[in-house]
Amino acid sequence: MPRLSRSDAVAAVLAVAAGILGVVAGTGPLLPILAVGVVAAGSLRAVMTQVIVAILICPLLAVIANDDASLLSAAILLGASSVIFLVRALAAPPLAQQRDEVVAARIVLTLAALITAFSLGTFVSQYA
Fold first, then answer.
1. Which single residue of 19, 86, 87, 110 could bond 35 by disulfide (Cβ 3.0 to 4.6 Å)?
2. What is the CA angle 67-82-79, rounded to 5?
3. Is 3 helix (H, G, I), strand (E, B) or coil?
4. Along the 128 residues of the chain, how does pLDDT read in single tens digits?
């Protein structure tokens, strides 16, 4: 597993803040679970997971926020955390140089992010 840097720590703090704001916004465990997923994907340098969070999940959360400042802030912080982790992940070694367990964990996190994005998209299309 790669060493964590200061930018990783900043991204993790942003994700934790997003999780806390999500709880304040009344999302229950949704935002804290997403924050844990972003930090886990960041520590594994899962590029595709961070792209899905930054491009799909955070904008969908912003649409769902619908004038809720704390949920909108949580979406912005989670997106910022994901982008920071994404920049760090782009410098990671290629998958061919990674252990099989790391590659499998990246795939699982990416699939979880895709399922979350589709679920949020369905919610937005039905209720927003």
1. 19
2. 15
3. coil
4. 556 789 999 999 999 999 999 999 988 899 999 999 999 999 988 999 999 999 999 999 999 888 889 999 999 999 999 999 999 988 877 766 778 888 899 999 999 999 999 998 888 877 65
